[in-house]
Amino acid sequence: MSADFSHPTNNEHAKITTVPLAEKHETPRSDDCGSNQALLSASNVDKSAANDLFKTAEYSQAISVYDRALSSIPNYLEYEIAVLKSNIAACHLKLSDWKAAIDEATKSIEALDRLEAVPPTDDKGSDVKDADGVKDATETKDDGDGVVELPDDDEDEASALEKIEKHDRRKEDIKRIRAKALMRRARARSEQGGWGNLQGALE
Question: Considering the entire predicted model, what is its pTM?
Answer without folding.
Answer: 0.62
